[in-house]
Amino acid sequence: MKPTREAILDGALRVMRSKGLARTTTKEIARASGCSEPLLYRHFEDKIGLFLAVLAERLPPVGVLGRGGADLIGRGTLEGNLRLVVAEVTGFYLTVLPIGMSIFSDSLLLARHRDAVQAHGTGPEIISSAVRGYLAGEQAAGRIRRGAPLEGAAMALTGAAMHRAFLWRFHAGDGEAAPSTASLDGFAAEVVAGVVPSLSVAPAD
Fold first, then answer.
1. Beta-bridge partner residues of 144
2. Secondary structure (3-state) at 70
3. In terms of CB atoms within 10 Å, which of 11, 91, 134, 140 comes out highest?
4. Domain with CATH 1.10.10.60 in the chain
5. What residue spans in the chain does CATH classification 1.10.357 cover?
6. Domain 61-205 is of which CATH architecture?
7. What's the pLDDT tens digit per position in 156-192?
8. What average pLDDT does range 11-36 have in this prediction?
9. Other CB atoms within 10 A of residue 131 CB
10. In this model, does residue 3 exceed pLDDT 60?
11. Within 13 Å and on the Cβ side, how many CA atoms surround 75?
């Protein structure tokens, strides 16, 4: 039998995917998880805490968030690493956008969500901040030129990933298939090819 916490996370993900975060209730999560509402609060502080746990434990992993991408710095090629980052971030947004977009339909709900997320010490900026942190690490390692636009590059990479994920989700209603690994990799390669020239160290004469 699946542990209660794992069942709750699985149930929460199913409900959030089908209804969006704004319309998801703890009662529905409890029903989908096969447990009582009070039991939810024995494992999670509130609905936002449960949402954040779903993001951390049930969504596609984003390696650059792990220790600021320290495992990538100075290894492989800069371009190859950034392709991996963009593909992973796009996969993350493909899952999270349908869950989170509904909160923007109500300004009061958005304000409550923002306050609650900030109270948990996090926010949507963690993705671009992590990418920028990785770029800063590569700069310190000498693989990105001094003075390179790290903030702009991080925003370009993560912004492109979010927009591509949005378009894929938007057109899914027209029967567009979910992107394959090859599609994600091809998209990531194009985005990175446009950003790397602004970062690269000039070759020695």
1. 200
2. coil
3. 134
4. 1-58
5. 61-205
6. Orthogonal Bundle (1.10)
7. 999 999 999 999 988 876 556 678 889 999 999 999 9
8. 88
9. 28
10. yes
11. 7
Return the bridge partners of 200, or none.
144
Closest CA to 88 of 161, 170, 196, 172: 161
Please provide the distance, in angstroms rounded to a whole number, between the alpha carbons at the two ends of the chain: 65
How far is Cα 109 from Cα 91, in angstroms, rounded to an integer?
Answer: 26
* Cβ-contact 12, 51 below 8 angstroms: yes
Domain 1-58 -> CATH class: mainly alpha
Q: DSSP for 106-162, please give it.
A: -HHHHHHHHHHHHHTT--TTHHHHHHHHHHHHHHHTTSB-TT--HHHHHHHHHHHHH
Task: Specify which of 114-128, 142-156, 170-184 reaches the highest per-range mean pLDDT.
Answer: 142-156
Give the predicted TM-score (pTM) of the model.
0.80
HSE of 180, CA atoms in CB hemisphere, 13 A? 3
Q: How confident is the model at residue 84 (pLDDT cuts 50, 70, 90)?
A: very high
Phi/psi-derived region of residue 148, left when phi > 0, alpha when psi is between -120 and 50, beta in every other case: beta
Upper half-sphere CA count for residue 105 (Cβ side, 13 Å) = 10
pLDDT above 90: residue 23? no
State both tokens at 17: 């995917």
Map residue 73 onto helix, strand or coil. coil
Smallest CA-to-CA distance from 157 within 187, 181, 112 is with 187
